[in-house]
Amino acid sequence: MKELQKVNIDEFKTHFQGEVMLPDNAGYDEVRQIWNAMIDRKPALIARCTSPEDVVKAIEFGRTQNLLISIRGGGHNIAGNAVCDGGLMIDLSLMKNVQVDLTTRRASVEPGCTLGDFDEVVQAHGLATPLGINSTTGVAGLTLGGGFGWLSRKYGMTIDNLLSAEVVTADGSQLHASESENADLFWGLRGGGGNFGVVTRFEFQLHPVGPNVLSGLIVFPFDQAKSVISQFARFTETMPEELNVWMVTRKAPPLPFLPEDVHGKEMVALALCYVGDPEVGEKLIEPLRGFGTVLGEHIGVQPYTAWQQAFDPLLSKGARNYWKSHNFSQLSDGVIDAIIEYAAKLPSPQCEIFIGTIGGQTASVAPEAMAYSSRDANYVMNVHGRWESATEDEHCIAWAREFFAKSQPFASSGAYINFLTQEEADRIAFAYGATYNRLVELKNKYDPTNLFRMNQNIKPV
């Protein structure tokens, strides 16, 4: 590092209230590590922000020093854009405050919060907003890419519940974005990722949920996959919005409710959550048990926060991950056959194929109403490659890519930006579809030099 740079860093530290970490500082390696172990990058420095003013100072420093800038919220994104090599990593993970206004049922949320942080605070009041399905996911990245989970059929996408945002733009301005103020920026933040600025506070609409919900898993043998998945496809087309059922096929983990001879063997599981009277929910889900021979089930009334953490053990930090994803308006025989073909040759015990069911209220918003436009996506499929050793990279990635290609003819338009890997820059325009050109115009306005490019990048013209 040049002496001039050291002088500049020392100057930066005098104006920055948070912690500035360099590669030789204790804890540097821990802070730079993110969820996906395939990403191993080393920033020249890490600015651990504690306030919006810190974010302003960090962006100003990165811009004046001509540094590549990455933004870390929860550090969970598959593409690993939270961390850069040789540049400035702006770390928001210390900014975790959540405030609830019970009168308006609104939550004010800082960008370092995980889903678990958010849910813990709002569920104390029996409230929630649609988020993802893994409690260690960051609220910021999830929201900026769209966001969906168990509550989305009833209450929409995460961005459909975003009421306003505080944003620091590339020139260091602090802006309030909502339907009535900087409305164009607000439009772009709802699905446009980190392309237009750094959000330092989100304001969400909350809804009465739980605190206990009917939820759980039903597991079927893999040799009945065609019947089970076909019936799942038909059932989910007509189920009420209060109910959500997802499908996953993988090798069975050693779950206590499954017989030991099932552990490690391929299976099909239906995961469900009902937001309403559990007795009504029980009647609605009863048909699911008739989809095949039930190997085991674990369904009951439990805290919503517990269900939000149910899949955490299968998605823990430190494994190598590679995803491919498609949207579907419906699940045809062709895609079901492709799922079964590739689930029969999983390259690792941790690999899986899941279908997240959305539709319902997510389809009630006009495609051009905000940056996220895939309102015809009733299902989002994630080909989740996951393994432990770099020696498995080639085999596991090839499996995911082959299945992605095999299932592509049956997919609908668009793609879920949060599931795109870093290599998929060629899919960004396709992912946004009708809103892409407007997003480019917005990028020209708010970030014409492409300062924020460690993301699924919308390049300015």
Automatic annotation (TrEMBL):
Which keywords label this protein? FAD, Flavoprotein, Oxidoreductase
One family from Pfam that matches here is FAD_binding_4
InterPro entries the UniProt entry points to? BBE, FAD-bd_PCMH, FAD-bd_PCMH-like_sf, FAD-bd_PCMH_sub1, FAD-bd_PCMH_sub2, FAD-linked_Oxidoreductase, Oxid_FAD_bind_N, Oxy_OxRdtase_FAD_BS
Task: Give the residues annotated as coiled coil.
Answer: none
Q: Which residues form the FAD-binding PCMH-type domain?
A: 39-209
Which cofactors, if any, are listed as required? FAD
What family does this belong to?
Answer: Belongs to the oxygen-dependent FAD-linked oxidoreductase family.
Recorded protein name is: FAD-binding oxidoreductase
Q: Please name the source species.
A: Buttiauxella selenatireducens
Taxonomic lineage of the native organism: Bacteria, Pseudomonadati, Pseudomonadota, Gammaproteobacteria, Enterobacterales
